Structure formats: structure tokens, C-alpha cells
Amino acid sequence: MTKKVLSYAVRTAKSPLGPLEITRRDPRPDDVVLEILYCGVCHSDLHQARNDWGFSHYPLVPGHEIIGRVRAVGSEVSKFKVGEYAAIGCMVDACRDCEPCKKGLEQYCVKGCTQTYNGFDRHDHQPTYGGYSQCIVASEAFVLKIPPGMNLKSAAPLLCAGITTWSPLRHWNVGEGSKVAVIGLGGLGHMAIKLARALGAEVTLFTRSPGKADDARRLGAHNVVISTVPGQMESVWGAFELIIDTVPYEHDINPYIMTLQVDGTLVFVGQLGNINPTANTVAMIMGRRALAGSAIGGIAETQELLDFCGEHGITAEVEMIRIQDINEAWVRLENSDVKYRFVIDMDTLKIP
User: Fold this and answer.
1) Residue 268 CA to chain centroid, in angstroms?
2) Rounded to whole angstroms, how far apart are CA atoms 144 and 21?
3) Relative to the CA of 130, which of 46, 51, 144, 247 has its CA 20 to 30 Å away?
4) 251: nearest Cα among 228, 235, 217, 221
5) What gap in Å lies between CA 280 and CA 255, rounded to an integer?
């Protein structure tokens, strides 16, 4: 048995999003069925829809910041009950046997994790469709619990923007007194500031826009460095243990390398692709500074993030939209015209 549900999809790399009926599988013994209530809009949704990374499959239903209500569970499910709220992030499966998976690093599965959308199910090999839809079915091992009292609407972006910045903060042991900088104040950057501040770090924002300074401080930044103002970058040379670079496009990282302490690390979480201009290794060699990359987090780490946010009252800054306005929202997203994450009210997804 399968179920037909309504979604919003792109049919080609150049087509707009529009209604499409898709098929969801009948739940397997370990599956949870979620009625989707809210879905965050990630910049990667736009990249995947336009095939910017070269591996998109159509039709494509985006969305991997999913908050929902449990509507059904398989016979072997023990973590969730019908009626509870739950969440699904960027993955719905992995091989579960390789070394990264055994360490709780399913995002680095040697055989490739199964993406929530634009992937293929490991069992029936059918395409996976994301959260711009009425419901979703996934193994309970990849479904997350939502802390009591958390604002469901603004919790959705924690499933990608949140965990993408939380994972490097935890991996590089950020805590009380750490000196952390964030490049870029957008969907990822605003979460990085909130989380680093809550972990006890001294947080600095790097931005090209002086108009973002007040908002950065409101979100938790202690300091703001305007990278285009002469002398400001030089004033923080050697200052930071960790820099989280959230910029999603090519940019010159060389000025930022100089602001790292000895043994400091600049970690990319936004840009996929080549570094251009090329990184000059002199500053790296002379200060044992490192460049690194980080993806999302594993399931246990994502649950840790949700629990931490529940304890500290942290959610994303969001603008709610109707599904019918998603194409306009994508244009605004491309123009950085959102503070700081769109979230779709999926109750607006109705049969035309």
C-alpha cells in the first residue's frame, strides 16, 4: 500500500515550484509517519532545485527542516507515539554499519547517507521527497524528539541551520571563554552567534555591512568587525580560536586566516566548491593555522542540539510564509532579503 499526498516540486532546473502529487510508502515496522506542520527553507533547497551542484533528480521536492505530528507508527517503533510532535532533518537513513555511522557520524557515512530529499531509499530505491509536502515517512532512528514547550514554528531551522553550526562548535570544544568569530549574518550565521554565545564563548561577527551590527549584538555577538573598513581586520589579527565561515559563495578567505590564533581553525559550513582566490599558506604555516570543513551533525548530536536549545530557550529568527509564496521567497532568499529563515506553514498546502 502507498499513499498519494500533495507536495510542491520543481520538474526541471529552470521551472518554478508548483503543486505535484507524490507517493509516500506504507510504513515499515520501524517507520514513523509525520504530518508536516512546518518546514524551513534552506539555501540548499534553491541550489538543489537549480542543479547548481550537478546531482539533482527531478521531480524534486525540497525541504529538510521538518516539524510534524506523528500520525502513525510501525509495529517495532518504541520512541514515538501517535499525536506527539517530532522532527526530521537532512537525513532519513545511512548504512548504519560503517565506522562513521557506528560513531554517530551518519552524515559522513562511507556509503553515503540517504538525504531527506533528492536521494534514493536504501531498500526500495525510490526517490526521497522532502518537507514541502503534506507528510513524510522515515525510520524512527532518524526521527528526533522535540523538547516540551519549544516554539514549533521557529524550531524548524534548527534541523539544518542549527545543527550545521552546532556541530563544529562542539567538535572544536567551544565553551566558556572561547573566542569565536562568525563570517556572515544569515540563516547559518545568526544560529552560530546564538549557539556560541549560549556555550559561553566571546563571539565576534565579521560582516561587510555596517547595518548588521545592531542586529548581531541583539542576537548575542559581543563584537562586530566590518571587514570593508580599513584597519578593522588588522585590529583582530591573532584573536580567534575558531572561525565559522557561513558564506555560501566564493570569497577571499586570506584576510580571515590572519585573525586566527596559533592552532586556530577556520571551518567552512556554507560554501561548496573551490576556494577562490586561492588560500595563501604562509599565514597557515607560520601560525599552524588550519582550514577545515564541516557538514551537518549526526542524529545523536542533532538531538543534543535540540535538547540544548530547549534548555536555553533558543530557536531561529523566522518569517512565516504560505507555500503559495515559495517562489517569491526563493527570490528574496537569493537576494539575502530575510531575517533570518523562511518557514512554511504547511497548513497552507491544500489541493487547488
Assistant:
1) 13
2) 26
3) 247
4) 228
5) 10
Task: Confirm if 37 and 349 have CB atoms less than 8 A apart.
Answer: no
pTM score, whole prediction: 0.95
Q: Which residue has the cell 578567505?
A: 253
Per residue in 280-316, pLDDT (tens digit) is: 999 999 999 999 999 999 999 999 999 999 999 999 9
Q: Quick: pLDDT tens for 7-40.
A: 999 999 999 999 999 999 999 999 999 999 999 9
Q: Residue 231 and residue 238: Cα distance in Å, rounded?
A: 14
Amino acid at 304: E
Q: Which residues of 169-192 are buried (b: 16+ CB within 10 A; e: fewer)?
A: bbebebeeebbbbbbbbbbbbbbb
Residue type, 82: V
- For residues 285 and 151, is the Cβ–Cβ distance under 8 A? no
Residues forming beta bridges with residue 351, ordered by sequence position = none
Sign of the Cα pseudo-torsion (39, 40, 44, 49, in order): positive
Q: What is the Cα–Cα distance from 103 to 49, expressed in whole angstroms?
A: 32
Is the peptide bond prior to 256 cis by the omega test (within 30 degrees of 0)?
no
Amino acid at 269: V
Q: Which residues contact 91 (CB under 8 A, 6 or more apart)?
A: 106, 107, 113, 114, 115, 116, 142, 296, 299
Question: Using an 8 Å Cβ cutoff, are 342 and 41 in contact?
Answer: yes
Residue 204: which of 234, 226, 188 has the closest Cα?
A: 226
Amino acid at 92: V
Over residues 98-114, the pLDDT tens digits come to 999 999 999 999 999 99
Q: How many helices (H) and strands (E) does the chain have?
A: 10, 17
Per-residue model confidence as pLDDT tens digits over 230-256 = 999 999 999 999 999 999 889 999 999
| Strand, helix or coil for residue 38 | strand
pLDDT range class, residue 2, cuts 50, 70, 90: confident
